[in-house]
Amino acid sequence: MVDFITTILGISIALIATCCFNFSIILLKIGLREGKQIKFDEGIRSLLNVFKELSKHKLWVIGTALGAIGMIPYAIAMGLVGIIVVQPIMSVGLIIFFISAVVVLKEKVNYLEVIPIILLISVPFLIGLAQISEVVIDLYTFVVPFLILFSILFTLSLISYLYSKKKRGTRLEGIFITFTGSIFYSLGAIFTNILAQALVDSSIFVPFFWEIIFGIFWFDYLHLWVFIGFWGLVIFNITSVIFIQSSLQRSKAILVIPIQNSISFILPVIAGLLVFNQSFKYDLFFIVTIIIVLISTVMLSKYQASIESIEN
C-alpha cells in the first residue's frame, strides 16, 4: 500500500492540477465565444486558422497556458498515486464552476445543491481511507491489456465521430463529438499514467526533455514507453480539447458537460483497475467515492454548463 504521506502529497498535487484545468476551461470558453466555429470537414488548414484567430485573444491564451501548466502536477500525481486516485480527485474541480456560477452569474442555490459540494470535499479523505496499492506498472506484462483497451476505445471514438458526421446539423452531432472528445481525454489520461511510471522506472532526468521527446532513438524499452507516453499524452489531450470545444459550439452545454465529465471519469478508472492493476485495501471506501463522484457530477453539471454558456 502507498504510505500515508505519499497519498496525501499525491492527492494535494492532484487538487492543484484540477484547479488549473478548471480555471483553464472557463478562460478558454470566454475566448472561444469570440472565435470561428471549429469545422473538421474543412481540413487541417481550417483548424489552424481557427486557432490562429483564437491565439489573438488574451484570455484564451492564458487559459491554454494554464491548462498546459496543470499537466505538470497532473503527471506528478499520476506517478505518486496512480490514475485510479487522480481521476476521482479531478471531479473536485467542479466546485470551481459552482462558485463561479454563484458569484459571476448570480445563480440561485438551494440547500439540496450544496450537498454535492460537501460530498466532493469528502472525496480526498475517502480515497485516503481506502488505502491505494503501490503504483507499479510492469511495462512488459501490461502491454496486452493496454492494447486491447486502447483498440476498443479508439474504435468507439472513431464510430462516434463517423456518427457525428451523419448527424451533421442536428443536436446529436454535438453529442457524438462529445463522446469522441471524452474518449480521447480518457486515452490522454491513460498515456499520462504510462509516462509517469516510465519516467520513474527509467530514471530519466526530466529537464533533459529531449530524452522524452525523442526517446524512441535511445533504442531501449523504457525510453520507448517514455516516448509513447509523452506523445500519446500530447496528441490525445490536444485532440480532446478540440473535439470538446467543437461540441460546445454545436450542442447545449447542459447536455455536453454531464456526458463529458462522466466518461472522462469512468474510463480512466476502468483502466486503472483492469490495465494498471491498482486496487484498494478497503474497497467499500472506493465504491462510496465512485458513487459520490457520479452523483455530484450530474448535480453540478448545470453550473459548469452555465459557465460554459457565458456570453462576453
Hey, roughly how much beta strand do the residues contain? under 5%
Number of DSSP strands?
Answer: 0
**Separation, N- and C-terminal Cα atoms:** 48 Å
Helix content: over 70%
How many separate domains make up the residues?
A: 1
Rg from alpha-carbon coordinates? 19 Å
Q: What is the N-to-C order of secondary-structure elements (H for helix, E for strand)?
A: HHHHHHHHHHHH
Q: Characterize the largest beta sheet: strand count, sense, and whether it forms a barrel.
A: none
The shape is: globular
Uncertain runs are none
How many helices in DSSP terms? 12
Structural class: mainly alpha
Structure description:
The model has no long low-confidence stretch (mean pLDDT 82). The chain contains twelve helices and no strands. Helix 5 (94-104) packs parallel to helix 12. With 312 residues, it is an all-alpha fold. The termini are far apart. The chain has helices at residues 4-32, 43-54, 58-81, 83-90, 94-104, 111-130, 143-166, 171-202, 210-213, 221-250, 253-274, 283-308. It has one domain (4-308).
